[in-house]
Amino acid sequence: MKKAVLTTFIVLTLSQIGLAQTNFDKAKLDGYFNALEQNDKFMGSVAVSKNGEIIYTKSIGFADVENNVKATENSKYRIGSISKTFTTVLILKAVEENKLNINQTIDKWFPAIINAKEITVKHLLSHRSGIHNFTNNKDYLTWNTQPKTEKELVEIIVKGGSDFNPDSKAEYSNSNFVLLTFILEKTFSKSYSDLLQEFIVKPLGLTNTYVFGKINPLNNECKSYSFAGTWKAETETDFTIPLGAGAIISTPTDLTIFADALFNGKLVTNESLEIMKTIKEGYGIGLFQFPFHNSVGYGHTGGIDGFTSVYSHFPDDKISYALISNGSNFSINNISVAVLSAVYNKPYEIPTFTAFNLTSEDLDKYLGVYSSSQIPLKITITKEGNTLTAQGSGQPAFPLEATGKDKFKFDLAGAEFEFNPNEKTMVLFQGGAQIKFTKE
């Protein structure tokens, strides 16, 4: 749900065949997470199930840093865009009950939206509507903590216009699932929160899943953080904004129960599930594919404020996995690969971290605004104390960790930065790409 910071969807790819085991080296996996915790790389919880039974859980870090409250198995986290799978299930329940036609156009509900007479409910579900993603608006982070009415949100979405013709391609847009929320509420004459409880939470016996309000630490709800030398509290997005695109709170254990139920016919019909699993241009309906070894998983990722999350289900192995973080200074993809490698009894390494200490004065030579002829993105380099920070145009700032002379990294996005102060250049290495920037 949050704006992207040099990140991409998590894809887990390895080449060897592996079968998930219930007997694996849990002590080594504990050691992996302990290393992350000891080096301020990750705060959060993880759960893995096999055949519907939990085989591993782990919680590290703090639910509330300021009050020294440690995270536990019962700590609840905002799950961001994983909420979209829940919303998809609710839409398909409406379709199965003949209350809604998946191929119905949305002009019935939103006549002012551009191309409303061509955009269908299915286009919204599969990110093929062309409707502009309002969380990409430059001013989004100036108002996302304040409540918005349906009328206000629809006006924002209408004003955003269309980025492409309906069904001509796929492009991720939170606007789609906010509109789907309103469609659900109009179709059932009930709130999204009530529908979530009626069709998913109560039937599955989920104990820690609901639409969030203001974070309540006394109810085991985690605050979220970013790391810049220390863990710093993030702002709270108001729940009236993400709605069915990202307003659910949950735990990894609840998410594995949800995933198991979804793929075992307890929530939607097999026909509906096949529709969800059908991938076109990278997108299913409420699901993405996660290949791992020779198995294929289905799930979703999420991000809101300082929270990041991922869940996946591997039908052939009957494995479900969920990870939610309320503060990460390390690649979620790398953590996911480690957890699944452990479960599949495949090699992985416990990371080691070597500090490269710099003074505030050492950082001055890197400060400035950098631009590139390769991409239309400017990156502003500033500092907070002894920590260098980077901020892409229109994006939140993020901390850089020194790894060597003139070298820094941002593990969360798998990005590395190499500066040449004499030539006033900076090179960004990410995802196999190498992009040169020059200080303005």
Q: How would you concisely characterize the structure shown here?
A:
This protein is α+β, with helices and mostly antiparallel strands. It is built from ten helices and 21 strands. The protein starts with 25 loop residues before the first helix and ends with a strand.
What attributes characterize this protein structure?
single chain; 440 residues; alpha+beta; Beta-lactamase; Lipocalin; 2 domains; 8-stranded antiparallel β-barrel; 6-stranded antiparallel sheet; 10 helices; 21 strands; 24% helix; 26% strand
Show unreliable segments.
3-20
Distance between the termini: 32 Å
State the CATH class of the largest domain.
Answer: Alpha Beta
Tell me the CATH superfamily of the largest domain. DD-peptidase/beta-lactamase superfamily
Number of spatially distinct domains: 2
How many beta-strand runs? 21
Radius of gyration: 22 Å
On the 0-100 scale, what is the average pLDDT? 93
Strand content: 25-35%
Report the major sheet: 8 strands, antiparallel, barrel
Shape: globular
Examine the coordinates and then state which fold CATH places here, giving the name of the CATH topology of the largest domain.
Beta-lactamase
Number of helices: 10
**Biggest sheet: strand arrangement:** 14-15-16-17-18-19-20-21
CATH architecture verdict of the largest domain:
3-Layer(aba) Sandwich
In terms of structural class, how would the helical and strand content be classed?
Answer: alpha+beta
User: What share of residues is helical?
Assistant: 10-25%
